[in-house]
Amino acid sequence: MFFADIPYKAAEKNRILLQVTEDRIPHAQLFLGREGSGNLALALAYASFIYCLNRTENDSCGACPNCKLTHKLIHPDLHFSFPVVKSDVKKREETTSDDFLTQWRHINLHSPFFTFHDWQQTINAQSVKPNINTKECVDIIQKLSFQSFSDGPKVLIMWMPEYLGKEGNKLLKLIEEPTDDTYLILVAQDQDKILNTILSRCQLMKFLPFSEEEIKKYLIEKHDIDEEIAQQLSRVAEGSISKTLDLVKGGEKNNSALLFDWLRVCYKGDAEEMMAFVNETVSWSLDNQVRFLEYSLHFFEAYFSWMLSPDITGQMTETEASVASKMKAIIDREKLELICKVINNLIFYLNRNGNHKVNWTADTIAIGDILRNKTQSSTNSLIFASESLLIQ
User: Is residue 392 in a domain?
Assistant: First the structure.
């Protein structure tokens, strides 16, 4: 992994580079950043830079013998630990990360910004909670106690130490008093789920989410996406490069136009148009349906700010500002709050496998009632009907 493959993060990269060039690499570090912050990708680039024999000023060379191994994640002194489930041929208590190294290398080499959900799917762990067990901890201690193969440093990258549990206490002595030239990099998303005994022994480095402007530029420059669409997607991405790449896979729908169409259909209340819109929407994948609804909530957040200060349109694209101007006559603050409640409920039940067509139909009717100033009791009954749909 090259630092150059990771967009932006200049301050974080510089800090990591200085640790190596000034020969002050901490023995145990915690790379903390929420999903999509790029902390795992940066840890992989960091490891390559540590081992590189011909470092440039800002990156590993990619051509020396060590780089050829680290960039393929097969260097004998670069070790990995991550949550797993039972393998096909071993008992769970005997299964460790080594049994899933092929899948680990594959997902990292093809998509270093993958999510925990992606990893669960890769190892068929949708219905079983992965973890890092006692055998794994014993193996880590053993691996890092051996002499290195290359006469150089030994590096362990542990991804998601949140799934370590109390077994992690076995690693305390290793973390506190590692052997010479041994470095542990823990890559985590939730500090509160890490054992305090481990947390207190690691040097913390925080990785912030990407900014909306960074996501927008990334979409335009790396994926050749139209600026208008890029701005809409950057708002929904919530600072996550993982979610950004997922949005790119999902297509480049003009969500502001779709939202305006939906509100128009809701307001008219024409049954034929309503069912045509619902049928089209439920033909999308679940991910695309939820993305559209999440975009709608983000748009309404910007719309609310615009209602308070109409002269400020910096949070909106030109198309969104035009849509906002048309909406202002019929959507006030009270209606906005009710509509957002309906959309949040719709997301909730879609994610729990509710009947998509019934959910969309009920909530399209509910939003129509809100827009047309129907009685509050009618609106509440429709929202309740949507919430009460049986999960199938």
Answer: no
